[in-house]
């Protein structure tokens, strides 16, 4: 680890691979001898157009995006896509199904109701978002314009380990917090979107993969803001307006690094190792640490846990002492409390080993 850096378990923006940061640092002041930084150049310059084209090509290669799908790079985060989805997809059907398994899916559903009818195909709020119900329990409407699910719920630590089967209704996935952590089945989806500030770069941009029948404007609502139109974004190569140039460039470096390591299969292997180690420590603690999420729905990315049945004073002590071991940003989301460790690509396996060692010694000292 580089001098002075810590193990950063932040849920996003989050740790990035040191190699990517160092490459960006090397190229910062004078990008490839062109006399200026990427931050300072026109988005229409030949240098930047090459950066954007290479980023798109690498997204297509790494995720196996079908050639007829459009790749979109947009600002406004995943949050703006909560609105863009109904605006581009509801069409004449006017209604859509939402599988709500956490707080982000809940927000996406709420946004749909501004433009049409968002139906709850399932809602696990009564379980405090700790489960994913079996398909037999989903209330799917065959006339829905689409079915939306959140592949990984960042706050609650709930992850789909499979692509939901919703028949012929177009499937939409918010992959913000597990994007680039495993291979994905793009062609089973009509739209995939992800803010990149977890596993693929700094904040400021989301990536979208959209099937051609939703990129042609045919289902776009008249009130759709130009900026939210996937047709406009796609037809203009994600440069209808000034894009988040520097973020796009850093994502491009992250993608190149991913390719060098062997693609998403490499990150999947690392994620399995890291989450396996941490869940092992939690489950082996005889209840001192507890993860509320049902085992089959546990996230490889965000691991929420309580200490001693939710003892807030002890959790505070844990967070304070963890910092002395360079283990940072382990507090749970402000809405749920407790602790949460996010294990994104930029957080190395050795950081999780350090965390589990610390958890063991903290337990030995504080178990009553
Ligand atoms: N969806 C998920 C799963 C998220 O984790 C987040 C951000 N934490 C969002 C959507 C919202 O993303 P943004 O803040 O980029 O709008």
UniProtKB/TrEMBL annotation:
<keyword id="KW-0032">Aminotransferase</keyword>
<keyword id="KW-0808">Transferase</keyword>
<feature type="domain" description="Aminotransferase class V">
    <location>
        <begin position="6"/>
        <end position="354"/>
    </location>
</feature>
<dbReference type="InterPro" id="IPR015421">
    <property type="entry name" value="PyrdxlP-dep_Trfase_major"/>
</dbReference>
<dbReference type="InterPro" id="IPR000192">
    <property type="entry name" value="Aminotrans_V_dom"/>
</dbReference>
<dbReference type="InterPro" id="IPR022278">
    <property type="entry name" value="Pser_aminoTfrase"/>
</dbReference>
<dbReference type="GO" id="GO:0004648">
    <property type="term" value="F:O-phospho-L-serine:2-oxoglutarate aminotransferase activity"/>
</dbReference>
<keyword id="KW-0663">Pyridoxal phosphate</keyword>
<comment type="pathway">
    <text>Amino-acid biosynthesis; L-serine biosynthesis; L-serine from 3-phospho-D-glycerate: step 2/3.</text>
</comment>
<protein>
    <recommendedName>
        <fullName>phosphoserine transaminase</fullName>
        <ecNumber>2.6.1.52</ecNumber>
    </recommendedName>
</protein>
<keyword id="KW-0718">Serine biosynthesis</keyword>
<dbReference type="GO" id="GO:0030170">
    <property type="term" value="F:pyridoxal phosphate binding"/>
</dbReference>
<dbReference type="Pfam" id="PF00266">
    <property type="entry name" value="Aminotran_5"/>
</dbReference>
<keyword id="KW-0028">Amino-acid biosynthesis</keyword>
<dbReference type="GO" id="GO:0006564">
    <property type="term" value="P:L-serine biosynthetic process"/>
</dbReference>
<dbReference type="GO" id="GO:0005737">
    <property type="term" value="C:cytoplasm"/>
</dbReference>
<comment type="similarity">
    <text>Belongs to the class-V pyridoxal-phosphate-dependent aminotransferase family. SerC subfamily.</text>
</comment>
<dbReference type="InterPro" id="IPR015422">
    <property type="entry name" value="PyrdxlP-dep_Trfase_small"/>
</dbReference>
<dbReference type="InterPro" id="IPR015424">
    <property type="entry name" value="PyrdxlP-dep_Trfase"/>
</dbReference>
């Amino acid at each position: 680890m580089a001098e002075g850096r810590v193990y950063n378990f932040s849920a996003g923006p989050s740790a990035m691979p040191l190699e990517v940061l160092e490459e960006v640092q090397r190229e910062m002041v004078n990008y490839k001898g062109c006399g200026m930084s990427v931050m300072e150049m026109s988005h229409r310059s030949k240098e930047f157009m090459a950066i954007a084209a290479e980023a798109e090509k690498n997204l297509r290669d790494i995720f196996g995006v079908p050639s007829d799908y459009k790749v979109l790079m947009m600002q406004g985060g995943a949050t703006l896509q909560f609105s863009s989805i109904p605006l581009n997809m509801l069409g004449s059907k006017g209604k859509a199904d939402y599988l709500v398994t956490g707080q982000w899916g809940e927000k996406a559903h709420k946004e749909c109701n501004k433009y049409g009818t968002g139906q709850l195909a399932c809602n696990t709020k009564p379980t405090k978002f700790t489960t994913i119900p079996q398909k037999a329990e989903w209330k799917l409407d065959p006339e829905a314009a689409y079915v939306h699910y959140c592949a990984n719920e960042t706050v609650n630590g709930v992850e789909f380990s499979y692509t939901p089967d919703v028949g012929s209704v177009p499937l939409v996935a918010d992959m913000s917090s597990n994007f680039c952590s495993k291979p994905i089945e793009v062609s089973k989806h009509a739209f995939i979107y992800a803010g990149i500030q977890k596993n693929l770069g700094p904040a400021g941009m989301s990536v979208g993969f959209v099937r051609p029948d939703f990129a042609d404007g045919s289902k776009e609502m008249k009130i759709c803001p130009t900026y939210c139109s996937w047709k406009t974004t796609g037809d203009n190569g994600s440069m209808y307006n000034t894009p988040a140039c520097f973020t796009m460039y850093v994502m491009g470096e992250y993608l190149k690094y991913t390719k060098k390591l062997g693609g998403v299969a490499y990150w999947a292997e690392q994620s399995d190792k890291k989450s396996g180690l941490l869940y092992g420590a939690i489950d082996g603690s005889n209840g001192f640490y507890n993860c509320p999420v049902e085992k089959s729905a546990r996230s490889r990315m965000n691991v929420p846990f309580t200490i001693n049945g939710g003892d807030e004073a002890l959790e505070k002590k844990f967070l304070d002492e963890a910092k002395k071991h360079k283990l940072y940003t382990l507090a749970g989301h402000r809405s749920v409390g407790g602790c949460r460790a996010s294990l994104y690509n930029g957080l190395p396996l050795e950081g999780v080993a350090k965390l589990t060692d610390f958890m063991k010694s903290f337990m030995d000292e504080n178990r009553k």
